[in-house]
């Protein structure tokens, strides 16, 4: 496709006009861009290698999640993954975070079982994050492992299996705390387990009782919230757990409230017409902080690349309208192996930021007043008119300010990177 990038002057002129248009609604665009720059998105490591991980031993597949596609050039080791994320970060405006899974440990030639992982196995990641100015978030990897082959981990009827995963989760909390301490920003460590049944169970209760007991053991030691925050993630169903998932939404909502952990809401983990955006104001009435996995469900899959669609916009609006930026940790969770993986990260992250910008450009106070005055006619009319405001000009200016490519120019950079770096990976 032939594409001629606009001159910086063209972008600035368009921005000046856009500013005037938004000022007419009482929106101060300069302060909007300042506020946007303070919101970090946590980029998930697993888009870079199809949720493979780099453990020395051959790990088992499964866990109810699967990346599909065979686009060439996926990262084969931690160095390549870091190189790829750096490339994506060059194309994404703002300062962000990096979200790592335990199965990305660097243990050299040594095989270190997951329940014996230590902060030192992540020291290269931590040093790298420091150098890149990134905060880190973390996750125990309770899947793709022989001890998870039964489909059950923390809620297994087998005490040996439960104990192994309890130890793994405890080890991961300590690693998360070390990351938070080293980087000076709390690490959110998120526990997600695949446990569930393909077919209709008789006993829905006992696995949940066991899961609660396991989680109590995992979280028994209190860690300094300045360094570390715990989150728990629910799910509706997965591949092979179509009929019953132990860690359902109600289960973890109750757990988070009772135990003061964060609740992780994954956009792809609910019934298709259910929106996590509508849950935020309810959940945040009872829990202090929330972790989001911004994702996109498509039929039975919960992990497509995030689009700038109504779902993403609705999530951003709920964060911004209520000033929840400090209480909502925004993480991403998608993995598409059918397209260039750096482009997947870049597209999904840029779209999440665009949704936040759109929400910030809304004259929310004025709209709230209309609502309180029961002027629903004006509320509807204005919300629709706002959709054709020159948002794109503000977004372009933000990219220019943040020194990342404007418009589709980033795609050429990804193509160049593919031609020079990824192609060599065979
Ligand atoms: C799986 C959960 C979970 C994973 C990652 C890899 O359904 O969404 O968050 O995608 O931890
Ligand atoms: Zn998730």
Describe this structure in words.
The structure is a single chain. The protein is an alpha/beta fold. It has one domain: Divalent-metal-dependent TIM barrel enzymes (TIM Barrel, Alpha-Beta Barrel). 43% of the residues lie in helices and 12% in strands. It is built from 14 helices and twelve strands. The protein has helices at 8-23, 29-37, 78-90, 123-132, 159-183, 205-218, 249-259, 276-286, 310-321, 341-360, 364-372, 376-386, 391-401, 409-420, and strands spanning 41-44, 97-101, 135-139, 187-191, 196-197, 228-233, 244-245, 262-266, 290-294, 296-298, 301-304, 328-332. An eight-stranded parallel beta sheet has the order 3-2-1-12-9-8-6-4, covered by helices on one side. Strand 8 (262-266), helix 8 (276-286) and strand 9 (290-294) form a beta-alpha-beta unit. Helix 1 (8-23) crosses helix 13. The longest helix is centred in the middle third of the chain and has 25 residues, at 159-183. The mean pLDDT is 97.
**What is the averaged pLDDT score?**
97
Q: Which secondary-structure class do the elements indicate?
A: alpha/beta
CATH class assignment: Alpha Beta
Low-confidence stretches are: none
Q: Would you identify the CATH architecture?
A: Alpha-Beta Barrel
Rg, Cα atoms, Å = 22 Å
Give the proportion of residues in helices: 40-55%
The CA-CA distance between the termini, in Å, is 26 Å
Sketch the topology as an H/E string, one letter per element: HHEHEHEHEEHEEHEHEEEHEHHHHH
Spatial strand sequence of the major β-sheet = 3-2-1-12-9-8-6-4
Q: What is the molecular shape? A: globular
Associated small molecules: L-rhamnitol, zinc ion
| Alpha plus pi helix count | 14
Characterize the biggest β-sheet: 8 strands, parallel
| Fold-level CATH name | TIM Barrel
Domain module count? 1
- The CATH H-level superfamily is Divalent-metal-dependent TIM barrel enzymes
């Amino acid at each position: 496709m032939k594409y001629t990038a606009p001159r910086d002057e063209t972008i600035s002129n368009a921005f000046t006009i856009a500013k005037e248009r938004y000022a007419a609604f009482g929106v101060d665009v300069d302060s909007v861009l300042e506020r946007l720059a303070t919101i970090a998105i946590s980029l998930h490591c697993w888009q870079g290698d199809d949720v493979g991980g780099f453990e020395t031993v051959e790990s088992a597949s499964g866990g109810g999640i699967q990346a599909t596609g065979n686009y060439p050039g996926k990262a084969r080791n931690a160095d390549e993954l870091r190189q790829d994320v750096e490339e994506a970060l060059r194309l994404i405006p703002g300062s962000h975070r990096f979200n790592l899974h335990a199965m990305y440990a660097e243990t050299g030639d040594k095989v270190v079982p997951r329940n014996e992982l230590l902060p030192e196995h992540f020291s290269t990641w931590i040093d790298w994050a420091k150098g890149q100015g990134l905060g880190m978030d973390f996750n125990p990897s309770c899947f793709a492992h022989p001890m998870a082959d039964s489909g059950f981990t923390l809620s297994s009827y087998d005490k040996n299996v439960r104990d192994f995963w309890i130890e793994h989760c405890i080890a991961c909390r300590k690693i998360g705390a070390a990351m938070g301490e080293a980087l000076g920003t709390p690490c959110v460590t998120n526990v997600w387990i695949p446990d569930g049944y393909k077919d209709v169970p008789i006993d829905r209760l006992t696995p949940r009782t066991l899961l609660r007991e396991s989680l109590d053991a995992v979280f028994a030691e209190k860690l300094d919230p300045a360094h570390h925050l715990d989150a728990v993630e629910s799910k509706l169903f997965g591949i092979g757990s179509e009929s019953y998932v132990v860690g359902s939404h109600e289960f973890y909502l109750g757990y988070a409230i009772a135990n003061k952990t964060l609740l992780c809401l994954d956009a792809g983990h609910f019934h298709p017409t259910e929106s996590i955006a509508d849950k935020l104001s309810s959940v945040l009435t009872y829990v202090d902080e929330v972790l989001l996995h911004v994702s996109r469900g498509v039929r039975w899959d919960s992990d497509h690349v995030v689009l700038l669609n109504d779902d993403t916009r609705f999530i951003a609006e709920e964060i911004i309208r209520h000033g929840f930026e400090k209480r909502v940790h925004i993480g991403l969770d998608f993995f598409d192996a059918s397209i260039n993986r750096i482009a997947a990260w870049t597209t999904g992250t840029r779209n999440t930021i665009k949704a936040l910008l759109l929400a910030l450009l809304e004259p929310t106070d004025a709209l709230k007043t209309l609502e309180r005055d029961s002027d629903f006619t004006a509320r509807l009319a204005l919300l629709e008119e706002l959709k054709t405001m020159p948002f794109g000009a503000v977004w372009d200016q933000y990219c220019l300010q943040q020194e990342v490519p404007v418009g589709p120019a980033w795609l050429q950079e990804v193509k160049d990177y593919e031609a020079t770096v990824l192609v060599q990976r065979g």
